[in-house]
Write a structure and sequence with these properties.
278 residues; mainly alpha; two-stranded antiparallel sheet; 54% helix; elongated; disordered C terminus
Length: 278
Amino acid sequence: MSGRLRHRPRRTVLGGLCSLFDGCPTVRLSDSPEDLAHFLRVLLPGSQKRFYCRDASAALSFDEVSAVIRLAHKYHVADIQNQGLLLLQDHYFPSDFDRYEELRKGHSLPRNLYGIAAINLARLTNTPSLLPVAFLKCHSLREAVLDGQKRADGTVEHLSPDDLRRCFVAQSALLERNSQAMGSVFQPKPSDTCNDPARCRRGLGDSCNLIVRKGTVFQHDFIINWAKLIELAGQSICPECEKELQARNAKERRKVWDDLPKIFGITVEGWSNCGAAD
């Protein structure tokens, strides 16, 4: 085996790779000891290989999940691969906006760097539902995405040239969407139930000017969550208008979510407003 990791492999999984050395079955693998350790811990407990199920909590690191998926794919252990991909979608790169918001509010979204490995895993296993959020994380890296992601074993993962291009091409589209969202959320149109339309119209205009001065609209975010600025604007607008702005904010964020495949030039079946083919 690679490195110094030694173990007696199960014939059912690695038997086809075995050769004999002094009468003992031997398997030569090119995988890193770190990856193999994660993979073997999943295979060895018993005949029923169980890596993840939705009824159990996910106390697994991203490096561990990534390694298990890669080796499960390599050695054709489909049930483990599928469980790993389900874990990624449930806890790291969701395809559901409400789940994304739940993870965001709980500060449980993955590090931006993990987007690189996630895109590569999605390509490897043909799991496009992971791609939109993974591309968002890579987009947030800006130029650092060129440096790649370093695994625990020292290997550095990089995006393919085509996927790198998608990250940079999407920048202008996302900045444009941020500008459009700001205009929609803070448009100087008070709520239909506004208590003081003239005052609130001025307050909304002042909020727009503040956002422009702070440069918030130019953040490299998938779509800015204006909630905190809306709370700040609440000091100069009535409660009914503040509620209206929060509703506009939620609507604009979901609209951009629906358009993510189109923005990144990918196809994701079942995603609202899927974009062009890869």
